[in-house]
Design goal:
Elements lengths: L4 E3 L2 E3 L6 E5 L7 H12 L5 E5 L3 H5 L1 H5 L6 E4 L4 H10 L3 E3 L8 H14 L3 E6 L5 H7 L3 H17 L5 E6 L3 H14 L5 E2 L7 H17 L5 E2 L7 H14 L7 E5 L10 H12 L6 E6 L14 E6 L2 E6 L2 E6 L4 H12 L2
Parallel strand pairs: 3-4, 3-10, 4-5, 5-6, 6-7, 7-8, 9-10, 11-12, 12-13
Antiparallel strand pairs: 1-2, 13-14, 14-15
């Protein structure tokens, strides 16, 4: 089991709930828009938000945003160690750096000193574009070179007394990502930030991340996730929550079971299931709902659902825990079923 690292009010590692992360599309110095995006993503289940820091204005904006956002904020820094120091002074709850590109060991030492003084964690690691040349030459581009590059960065921070570290070893290739995290998980007990980087647009990106993140979490590897997508960050959060729900790792979501439909289906089950999904999207309560196509896959197959509906030629039946409680006409089904959902929430 990995050690616990505290990021603001969120604890990751040590068996704590898997935290969902995303990254803002706005500069944090654009305070109002940054806050609006934080709030929008938090409503979908975001736990931790990361911001790119490209100048001192960004670094100083953390304190202002934190006044209005109840969520850990992470500063993402490359190339300039002074921006890391300024972000720590500005109130960032965690920083993400690449020790190899911030100007040498003395600069890393200064950042380490500031981290310890502020008592905040740091994320380090590697991806396929930042593998250390010595490991690339020795091992080639594989999980060993990717993992050893990350561990070298970890060792450098440890040298200067930093103990609250989160590690990542991301690739755009799913198989390499999984193998790299398996490698690192055997070598250290720090919490792991997992995901498939540069995964692409929403459809393909969700598939790649679902396979990669799901494979790792089923192995007990991973403490916080980001579903990286070339899409609105809210889609990352929704996808992350869906992955955790599918794995049984969150219990405050509505799970919807729906038929794939077939020739026996005599009502618009697919459209109805989508309406139910939209209606329950922001509900934070453990609830299993079934939308079934016909009597064959109706109350019997979905008997463990808290609430369900099955359609047929002559109308629909609503059932609770497998027992039919009401019969309704197809045109009245949505109003009646949504009313039953509301009852479950009381």
């Amino acid at each position: 089991m990995s050690k616990i690292v505290k990021i603001g009010k969120v604890n990751i590692g040590g068996g704590n709930r898997i935290a969902v992360q995303s990254m803002s599309t706005f500069k944090i110095s654009n305070v109002d828009r940054a806050i609006e995006e934080c709030q929008r993503l938090k409503a979908e289940g975001l736990d931790i938000m990361r911001f790119s820091v490209t100048d001192l204005e960004d670094a100083r904006a953390f304190s202002e945003v934190k006044k209005r956002v109840d969520m850990p904020l992470v500063a993402d820094i490359h190339f300039d160690y002074k921006l890391a120091l300024a972000s720590i002074d500005g109130g960032a709850d965690k920083i993400r750096i690449n020790p190899g590109n911030i100007g040498g060991e003395n600069n890393v030492k200064e950042v380490a000193k500031a981290l310890k003084s502020a008592n905040i964690p740091v994320r380090v690691g590697s991806n396929t574009g930042s593998i250390e040349k010595e490991f690339l030459k020795k091992y080639g581009k594989n999980e060993v070179s990717l993992g050893e590059s990350a561990l070298k960065n970890v060792a450098l921070l440890e040298k200067y007394g930093v103990e609250d570290i989160v590690v990542s070893v991301k690739a755009s290739d799913v198989d390499l990502t999984v193998k790299a995290y398996e490698y690192v998980a055997k070598k250290c007990d720090y919490p792991l930030h997992i995901g498939v980087t540069e995964a692409g647009t929403e459809y393909n990106g969700v598939i790649k991340n679902s396979i990669g993140i799901g494979s790792l979490l089923l192995r007990g590897i991973g403490d916080t996730i980001r579903v990286s997508l070339s899409a609105d960050p809210v889609r990352e959060v929704i996808a992350g929550r869906a992955i955790l729900s599918a794995l049984g790792l969150v219990d405050d979501v509505v799970k919807i079971v729906a038929c794939p439909t077939c020739g026996r289906c005599e009502w618009d089950c697919m459209q109805f299931a989508k309406k139910v999904e939209d209606y329950t999207a922001k509900i934070r309560k453990p609830l299993k709902i079934a939308v079934m196509g016909c009597a064959v896959n109706g109350p019997g197959e979905a008997s463990d659902a808290d609430l369900g509906i099955a359609g047929g030629k002559d109308g629909c039946v609503i059932f609770v825990k497998g027992k039919i409680t009401k019969k309704v006409n197809k045109e009245d089904a949505q109003k009646a079923f949504f009313g039953e959902i509301d009852k479950c929430l009381r």
